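Changelog note: in this version the structure field was regenerated for every chain. One regenerated record is shown below for reference.
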Amino acid sequence: MNSHLTGRCACGAVRFEVVAPKTYGVCHCKMCRRWTGGLWMGVVASETVALTGQVTEWASSRIASRGFCAACGSCIWHKPRHTKSYTYGQGLFDDQTGWTLVREIFAEDRPDHIALADQGQKVMTGWGTLWAVLTGRLPK
């Protein structure tokens, strides 16, 4: 079920309101780990209702771009170029209650010191992730 959810960066310069489920995925790819300094926990928004503040966009690969706060550097969103959906950082949302982890992607890149509690999430490899995104079958 989708809800109107609000969030902000660490300094508050960037604020947003989106329509999204209270589910998130974790990405273990090397790019996400370097970008965030840890795991990227993303919420796929079906709609961005409002976005204020200066977000700097970085073309991080041939297939995606990433946005971060120009003031504090918080990782705001990831956007595959072939979709209209933005994936916002889960930790940015104001309400942190009632969330469910539903997927882990690029599982083959997961460092051996990281173990998430099994909550029934779908675990996918890089190729499986790419295929699911391209075919619109990424678990929501």
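Spot check on this record: The first helix runs from residue 30 to 36. The longest strand covers residues 2-8.
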